[in-house]
């Protein structure tokens, strides 16, 4: 049976902890071994104070043990060191204990104050070394057995028995206390590690939320801008449409007057005025898309095949797309719900923008690739060209009404803002991506027809 998500996360955490612990143990083992060499050698001072007559053999023993510990340190730095760290640690810890036990057997046996050294090592292993509970208990019991063996081997035998019992109990108490300490130490270390992992998890979550917030903020800003333009456009429609219509009518009337007919100069002026007024009329009609749209409103329209809309838009822009390689990738079924004419308008706008940008930049082997895919019940469309791309500072502005990089009189800068509003009416988002000098891509999504 597959483990549940929290159980799997728990196992993952435990594995991570074990790996971190292995590094920690290795580092501490090396540090501890260096310390042990120093303490073993400094013990010469103890020998001088307690057993001056044994100074020489004890000093030799200390040097031999230090060299052996140095050998273990070398092993700890080897490749196998990490894997065998607990055993290597146990061996360098036992070396001084064997040496102390030997010294006890060579001096007063049960009454030798050196038994304190055995005790010290047991405590130190529990407090300072990241040992496991069982390792610690084994080390404590082995240390005690070494003490008992030293007393037994002493020429004077196990005497006095009372002191032996007291010292034995002290050693066993030390082993037990050190074991308990190790147990809680290990748990605290695990909790600390888990906390660290949880903080890292939360940080990742926060980063994701932050990125989403930045996206939402961008979309909201765009929607706010569109709403403001909508209000402006509604006002404009009202205020401009009527005077424009009067003017057009007046121009028509004036053009029919005999004076005008006999005056070619005047006639030309009136034709220019008429064209200007018609242009205003077109702009106003484009602005209607903003004026009467409701953000997030239900999609009106009928089911239509997106594939057909794509065909129509390619046909309608055939003139501009001359010399451009147009490719596509479509699923079998592309039945969507919406306003087919408006979507054709969006596609025409995307194709002609791409073709224009590529022509202006002199792109070699210009190409436009349209990828269409279903995801989460919506049809996702991506139109990508290999043209000059869009500069990062322009990318955020391309959907702004009247933003254009075309020369004066060539582009109104309304195409993408109108397209944005159209896609928004279909409950989708139109967004642009680009790598300057490499490519530009526009994506949007449409609802599936029920
Ligand atoms: P217009 O085409 O009238 O300028 P649009 O709103 O359609 O208005 O486009 C706005 C601007 O976005 C363009 O002037 C151009 O700078 C940029 N743009 C749009 N599509 C592309 C594209 N495929 N490659 C490079 N720039 C583009």
UniProtKB/TrEMBL annotation:
Transmembrane residue ranges: 27-46, 58-77, 84-104, 116-134, 141-158, 164-184
Ranges where the Histidine kinase domain occurs: 235-450
Stored Pfam families: HATPase_c (PF02518), HisKA (PF00512)
UniProt source species: Cupriavidus campinensis
Catalytic activity: ATP + protein L-histidine = ADP + protein N-phospho-L-histidine
GO molecular function terms attached to this record: kinase activity
UniProt-listed PANTHER family: SENSOR HISTIDINE KINASE (PTHR43065), TWO-COMPONENT SENSOR PPRA (PTHR43065:SF42)
UniProt-recorded name of the protein: histidine kinase
The UniProt record lists the keyword Membrane: yes
């Amino acid at each position: 049976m597959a483990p549940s998500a929290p159980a799997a996360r728990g196992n993952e955490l435990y594995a991570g902890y074990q790996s971190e612990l292995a590094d920690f143990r290795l580092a501490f083992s090396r540090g501890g071994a260096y310390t042990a060499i120093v303490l073993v050698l400094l013990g010469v001072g103890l020998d001088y104070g307690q057993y001056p007559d044994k100074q020489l053999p004890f000093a030799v023993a200390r040097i031999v043990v230090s060299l052996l510990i140095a050998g273990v340190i070398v092993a700890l730095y080897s490749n196998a060191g990490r894997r065998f760290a607990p055993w290597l640690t146990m061996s360098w810890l036992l070396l001084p204990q064997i040496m102390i036990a030997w010294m006890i057997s060579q001096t007063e046996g049960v009454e030798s104050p050196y038994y304190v050294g055995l005790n010290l090592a047991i405590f130190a292993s529990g407090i300072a070394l990241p040992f496991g509970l069982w390792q610690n208990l084994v080390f404590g019991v082995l240390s005690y057995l070494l003490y008992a063996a030293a007393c037994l081997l002493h020429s004077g035998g196990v005497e006095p028995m009372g002191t032996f019992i007291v010292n034995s109990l002290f050693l066993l108490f030390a082993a037990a206390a050190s074991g308990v300490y190790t147990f809680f130490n290990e748990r605290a270390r695990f909790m600390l590690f888990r906390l660290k992992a949880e903080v890292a998890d939360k940080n990742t979550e926060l980063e994701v939320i932050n990125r989403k917030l930045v996206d939402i903020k961008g979309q909201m800003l765009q929607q706010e801008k569109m709403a403001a333009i909508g209000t402006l456009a509604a006002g404009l429609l009202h205020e401009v449409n009527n005077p424009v219509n009067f003017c057009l009518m007046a121009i028509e009337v004036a053009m029919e007057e005999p004076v005008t007919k006999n005056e070619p100069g005047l006639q030309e002026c009136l034709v220019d005025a008429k064209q200007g007024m018609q242009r205003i009329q077109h702009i106003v009609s484009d602005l209607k898309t903003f004026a009467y749209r409701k953000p997030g409103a239900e999609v009106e329209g009928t089911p239509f095949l997106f594939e057909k809309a794509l065909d129509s838009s390619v046909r309608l822009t055939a003139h501009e797309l001359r010399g451009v390689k147009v490719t596509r990738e479509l699923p079998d079924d592309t039945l969507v719900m919406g306003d087919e004419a408006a979507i054709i308008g969006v596609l025409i706008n995307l194709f002609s923008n791409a073709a224009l940008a590529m022509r202006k930049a002199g792109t070699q082997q210009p190409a436009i690739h349209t990828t269409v895919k279903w995801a989460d019940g919506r049809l996702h469309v991506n139109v990508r060209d290999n043209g000059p791309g869009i500069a990062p500072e322009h990318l955020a502005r391309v959907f702004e009404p009247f933003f254009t990089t075309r020369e004066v009189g060539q582009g109104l800068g309304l195409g993408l803002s109108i397209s944005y509003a159209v896609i928004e009416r279909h409950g989708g988002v139109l967004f642009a991506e680009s790598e300057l000098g490499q490519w530009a891509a526009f994506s949007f999504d449409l609802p599936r027809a029920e």
